[in-house]
């Protein structure tokens, strides 16, 4: 039944949609996990697609970082007149691990069922990668007359933080000229559907939090568990983490998050709308913010730095006092706030000088891009044409993308996709990751129009 249904659906697709589906399936079914996957195979396969679509060898480069033979990256370029700096289309092809035993379906087979695509990477981020490849072929076929080059970059290891093989970081350090651009389109944005599947809003991600983890460590001489004393490494660490769990970093709005709550207050109704207006006042209404936090932790993460315990490891034997207790705290720091000050705050909140706090890796500072009027108008115009009456809402990503590297060097990067999901999300990084079939095809058309307009303006 499913096979017949899928065949009927495929027959109803446009030629561009059929090509997208073929490319999408091919890409999704190449395992690109860190453990056993191969990004180089994935980008080489996509280069083959581009070559079949009219791109020459000189218009494409595959960069494999030293020591990472399976961590390859692809850069392809559609030449414009050069009147303006290039537009970069960025997508990563690596995916988070997925165990077959945990999934309802095989995570590395694209399955179309009841209007939904299921697979690891079906949403994050092989949907955009496949769309960009398909649209680059479409531009080449149409002999697009653009004022700027359009560059496609498919990269590896975005999901690994930190990684010595991150594709964007590697390209910026070693081949900056290949991806240098005025602005970039990236993951991180998307639309929201209501329970009936009607589009509610279309989000543009402008800026993201700074990722920084810290190791917490408490050491102790230990001893026999039959003769306990109060100076226990586990208790020290647990008490410090408990204090952190009750602590809130200061409230702070940026241009992006202020605009987000202003526009969302006109979409929401009742108490939620009133509370969104209330937190925009000076000072913000604390009770309103607490209610918004109860509705969604995203509302809280948008307006303050957050630090949360994510890992614990302690003790060495069931019958011995712990000689060591370790924990990991992951912080997502608001753009513009000091990483050093966050560490000092952790020291203060832990209130225990026996707990050693050490940064894990070096944070990548990333200023938020400006809400460029021409870019915003392009997104709003195309959104209005495809989904009349649906507002465009800027958002700050509370997670992290490779856009942090680009923004840090002045390549302003925006998350926008035209792909809509319901309140349940896509299951990205979790079980049974999925995307609605219609959302993939709508997103492809939206991104085709947006990159074409930005390339020609």
Explain what you see.
The protein has helices at residues 2-11, 15-28, 39-52, 126-142, 167-174, 176-179, 233-245, 255-267, 270-278, 286-295, 297-301, 339-350, 373-386, 403-408, 437-456, and strands at residues 60-63, 73-78, 87-92, 111-113, 116-118, 150-155, 183-186, 190-193, 199-208, 210-219, 223-224, 306-314, 320-321, 324-333, 356-360, 392-397, 412-415, 420-421, 434-436. It has 15 helices and 19 strands. It is globular, with a radius of gyration of 24 Å. Residues 1-5 have low confidence and may be disordered. It is α/β, with parallel strands linked by helices and 457 residues long. The strands form five sheets. It has a six-stranded mixed sheet with strand order 1-2-6-3-7-17, sandwiched between helices. A four-stranded mixed sheet has the order 16-9-8-18. It has a four-stranded antiparallel sheet with strand order 12-14-10-15, with helices on one face.
Number of strands: 19
Tell me the distance between the termini.
47 Å
Content-based structural category: alpha/beta
Shape: globular
Strand portion, in percent?
15-25%
How are the strands ordered across the major sheet?
1-2-6-3-7-17
Integer-rounded radius of gyration: 24 Å
Q: How helix-rich are the residues, as a percent range? A: 25-40%
Biggest β-sheet: count, sense, barrel?
A: 6 strands, mixed
Q: Provide mean pLDDT, rounded.
A: 95
**Which regions are unreliable across 5 or more consecutive residues at pLDDT < 50?**
1-5
User: What is the tally of helical segments?
Assistant: 15
């Amino acid at each position: 039944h499913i096979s017949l249904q899928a065949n009927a659906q495929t027959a109803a697709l446009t030629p561009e949609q059929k090509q997208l589906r073929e490319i999408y399936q091919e890409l999704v079914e190449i395992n690109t996990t860190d453990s056993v996957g191969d990004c180089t195979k994935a980008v080489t396969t996509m280069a083959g697609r581009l070559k079949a679509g009219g791109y020459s060898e000189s218009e494409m480069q595959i960069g494999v970082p030293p020591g990472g033979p399976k961590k390859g990256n692809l850069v392809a370029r559609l030449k414009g007149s050069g009147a303006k700096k290039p537009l970069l289309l960025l997508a990563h092809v690596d995916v988070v691990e997925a165990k077959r035993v945990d999934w309802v379906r095989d995570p590395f087979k694209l399955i179309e069922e009841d209007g939904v695509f299921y697979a690891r990477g079906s949403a994050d981020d092989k949907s955009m990668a496949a769309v960009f490849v398909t649209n680059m072929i479409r531009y080449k076929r149409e002999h697009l007359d653009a004022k700027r080059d359009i560059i496609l970059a498919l990269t590896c290891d975005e999901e690994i933080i930190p990684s010595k093989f991150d594709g964007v970081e590697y390209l910026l350090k070693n081949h900056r000229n290949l991806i240098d651009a005025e602005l970039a389109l990236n993951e991180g944005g998307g639309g929201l559907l209501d329970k009936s599947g009607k589009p509610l809003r279309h989000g543009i991600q402008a800026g993201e939090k700074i990722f920084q983890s810290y190791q917490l460590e408490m050491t102790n001489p230990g001893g026999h568990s039959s003769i306990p004393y109060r100076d226990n490494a586990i208790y020290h660490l647990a008490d410090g983490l408990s204090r952190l769990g009750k602590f809130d970093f200061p409230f702070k709005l940026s241009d992006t998050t202020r605009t987000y709550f202003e526009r969302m207050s006109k979409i929401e109704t009742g108490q939620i709308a009133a509370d969104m207006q209330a937190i925009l006042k000076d000072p913000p209404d604390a009770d309103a913010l607490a209610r918004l936090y109860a509705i969604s932790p995203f509302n809280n993460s948008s307006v303050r730095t957050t630090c949360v315990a994510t890992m614990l490891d302690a003790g060495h034997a069931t019958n011995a006092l712990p000689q060591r207790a370790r924990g990991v705290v992951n912080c997502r720091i608001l753009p513009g706030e000091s990483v050093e000050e966050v560490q000092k705050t952790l020291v203060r909140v832990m209130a225990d000088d026996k707990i050693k706090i050490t940064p894990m890796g070096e944070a990548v500072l990333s200023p938020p891009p400006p809400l460029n009027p021409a870019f915003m108008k392009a997104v709003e115009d195309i959104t209005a044409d495809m989904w009349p009456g649906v507002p465009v809402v800027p958002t700050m990503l509370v997670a992290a993308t490779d856009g942090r590297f680009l923004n840090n060097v002045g390549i302003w990067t925006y998350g926008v996709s035209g792909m809509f999901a319901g309140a349940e999300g896509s299951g990205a990084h979790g079980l049974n990751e999925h995307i609605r079939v219609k959302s993939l095809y709508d997103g492809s058309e939206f991104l085709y129009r947006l990159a074409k307009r930005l390339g020609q303006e």
